[in-house]
Fold Phosphatidate cytidylyltransferase.
Amino acid sequence: MEDENVTSTPSTPVQRLRHRKRSSTEVFADGDRVNASPLLVNDRNKYKSFMVRTYSTLWMIGGFVLIVYMGHLYITAMVVVIQIFMAKELFNLLRKAPEDKCLPGIKQLNWHFFFTAMLFVYGRILSQRLANTVTADQFLYRLVSGLIKYHMAICYFLYIIGFMWFILTLKKKMYKYQFGQYAWTHMILIVVFTQSSFTVANIFEGIFWFLLPASLIIINDIFAYIFGFFFGRTPLIKLSPKKTWEGFIGASVTTIISAFVLANIMGRFPWLTCPRQDLSTGWLQCDADPLFKAEPFTLPAWIPEWFPWKEMEVLPVQWHALCLGLFASIIAPFGGFFASGFKRAFKIKDFGDSIPGHGGITDRMDCQMVMAVFAYIYLQSFIVSQSVSVDKILDQILTNLTFEEQQALFMRLGNMLKDKAMMGYS
Amino acid sequence: MEDENVTSTPSTPVQRLRHRKRSSTEVFADGDRVNASPLLVNDRNKYKSFMVRTYSTLWMIGGFVLIVYMGHLYITAMVVVIQIFMAKELFNLLRKAPEDKCLPGIKQLNWHFFFTAMLFVYGRILSQRLANTVTADQFLYRLVSGLIKYHMAICYFLYIIGFMWFILTLKKKMYKYQFGQYAWTHMILIVVFTQSSFTVANIFEGIFWFLLPASLIIINDIFAYIFGFFFGRTPLIKLSPKKTWEGFIGASVTTIISAFVLANIMGRFPWLTCPRQDLSTGWLQCDADPLFKAEPFTLPAWIPEWFPWKEMEVLPVQWHALCLGLFASIIAPFGGFFASGFKRAFKIKDFGDSIPGHGGITDRMDCQMVMAVFAYIYLQSFIVSQSVSVDKILDQILTNLTFEEQQALFMRLGNMLKDKAMMGYS
């Protein structure tokens, strides 16, 4: 145990930093070099970095495409695996081996909270779909409905167990460390876990709403890197000395254009655009939402003067994609700045070392998390609520009410509508 | 500025501690004396402490009763005021005056996050009632409905502003302090603010659901103190050396009995039991929920042998009150232990000094917050969902859907019910 903690896996920030320094061939890929030459174009180390990073990027993109092709459940599984890795990286970050030895069970407690959070968040997101999946079997359906009904109480109960466990295992002279760990665990669960879980909510509204935002972040990252690599001269922000204005602007333009184009391409596959109402992996069919039906768009007057185009076919979703593109290129990078600042504040180079040339998984996910939340809120506020809230309420009625209650609701709604119609209210 | 920070209001934990020590007449009321005599009965200081604490307790109870009498909106206002005081106490706790001087706006940023959280949480809890309040005015109704629809997006936008503000004001060499403050603010908002806001959700389900849990915590506190005062000999937990097993057990029994009795008394006032569907303060009437209708209860066989009673009248809600009483006396005190442990870990005596003999407001609210969340989850899981979910869904339909959508929903629900009835599904 001891030598594992000290030599091979460094477990405190300081040890971690030393460990990094020892492996001198390692490349500094992610803007954490403090004395970076202002002329990034002439940086030597960066060619090697470029190759390493390109290889692992290509591998990741390949795996990603395969998983998207396999469908909602597989993407969800991928998200969960990433979340577990991130939690592991982050839990380890503030852990101190000598203190942990005096505190048996502190690791398990972290994971207890993690799985409670998981049950709570995924329960909220997926309960409806789970209920839809098991409707065929009366017994299972009643069981699942019951679990859903008491979902909040069950999670609360689990949380209270963790809370009491924490208090009853408080040890004199360790209070500060233990409270620090408690706060840290909760921050991770909220900032990292809960944020990234919005991804799953997006997936089931249609893979489109997961794939487009995630792709835009990747595109923005790649092009910020490429533009910075070839043209980078003006540093952007002190927090990340390797980021340049050239990279930022080049990437923004590319990302916004890509958003418009990608939305048009992705919007043509029902596999991507249809929401999934259950947890199966089978084929997906739906009436295309008007968002994904091509409409003619008259181009501004000056274009026909120069080009032979007067009109083009546009899917309405492409306008929404522009908003996503704008956010992905202007606001989401702040997620990365936040992570950089955090790493500087606590003097760590990367959150982990799982991906060659990229650092830990958490290092790659910082902007993705910000984007996932935005995509969710955008989708729920400006898209879903406009089109399918009737379906949502119907779903609610069918899952939560008994047959008698459904009938009662039907009668009362009927009476209300009659009254309104008579009052001329519309 | 400077002398205010240094002399009159101590702003770091250490300064705060020194400040406390100087005022030597101050009583140590809340279990933070490290060298407490094991025989608490013979403690001298405690008689003075007892008087101070009794006076302020009586004042608080008087004010509390008046506010409850005035109604939902006033109670809500009281909760909000308490929350603001708590946030103030807690924000100040980890603040360091010299660092703050180099960071203009760091205070405002904390309050920006606080009010964003407030808008978010209260928006979720009260939006439905707000919409009900303004139905008379068509224009206002549409405005409020619109705001409710984009409530999540608005709050997210405000949050993002705070997030970018934070990142853009990061200053070299201050990173660690600033990230610490950021994390601390978020912990306060989640642990203290969000938890305590559940109280408001309870209030509008019926003052009963706020008043009974809050009273049980107060009763448990008072009787733990009284029993500990007169009989306390066996220390309960190292975290709070003034807490004794005698106090704990005496208080538990008293609290559980009080819960049963109080529920019977409170359950007879429609002012306390009726839920309020809007934000007015007017008179309240409703058909009594079956929970509050007396039922005969046959006493166990051995009682009639000794006493002249065979049956008694019980409101069904009294059985639920027993659960609340159990929680208030067994689990909720862990909220207090948590606060004690936290104070020990960071070497502070009290979170503030607003209430003579009690410490800060936060010191009195620790168990209340745990209780409020429990009451909310208990209410939603085991009580509300059983009785009024038809009303809830109807509310949702009337606020979120247009008249046409309401009609569409009515038709589809009708068809579904017809199909089910034909299948013999019930």
Observations:
- Chain B touches chain A through 64 residues (CB under 8 Å).
- Chain B has two domains: 2-387, 389-426.
- The CA atoms of residues 291 and 383 of chain B lie 9 Å apart.
